[in-house]
Amino acid sequence: MRSASGELTGIVKVDAAMRPGAVSIPHGHHQANVNRLTNKDDIDVVTGMVRYSGIAVSLHPA
User: Fold this and answer.
1) Rounded CA gap, 24 and 34, in Å?
2) Sign of CA dihedral 19, 60, 50, 45
3) Under a CB-based contact definition with an 8 Å cutoff, are residues 4 and 57 in contact?
4) What is the pLDDT along the chain (62 residues), one digit of tens a residue?
5) Within 10 A of 25 (CB to CB), how many other CB atoms are there?
6) How far is the C-alpha of 40 from the C-alpha of 43, rounded, in Å?
7) Which residues does 55 contact at the CB level (< 8 Å), separation at least 6?
8) How many CA atoms lie within 13 A of 32 on its CB side?
9) In angstroms, rounded to a whole number, what is the distance separating the alpha carbons of residues 30 and 10?
10) Taking a C-beta distance cutoff of 8 angstroms, is the pair 60, 23 a contact?
11) N or C terminus of the chain with fewer C-beta within 10 Å?
């Protein structure tokens, strides 16, 4: 999985309950450090916090 800021490698599970085109990664897993996909300079203008959701990613075979 890649974003404009970084990438992760992992196993993907397709879940029919998920919206098509959406990806969900739980926080707090060393193997899937979602912070690698974020950018400390991408600030949400409403909250003033770093954007940790709604990040565009693409999936590629490992």
Assistant:
1) 10
2) negative
3) no
4) 899 999 988 888 899 999 999 998 887 777 778 888 999 999 999 999 998 888 899 998 87
5) 14
6) 7
7) 3, 37, 38
8) 11
9) 12
10) no
11) C
Give the residue from 62, 39, 16 showing the smallest Cα distance to 54.
Answer: 39
Q: What is the rounded distance in angstroms from the CA atom of residue 53 to the CA atom of residue 62?
A: 23
Q: What is the pTM of this model?
A: 0.73
Amino acid (one-letter) located at 26:
P
Give the distance from CA 35 to its chain's centroid.
8
- The per-residue pLDDT for 33 is 84
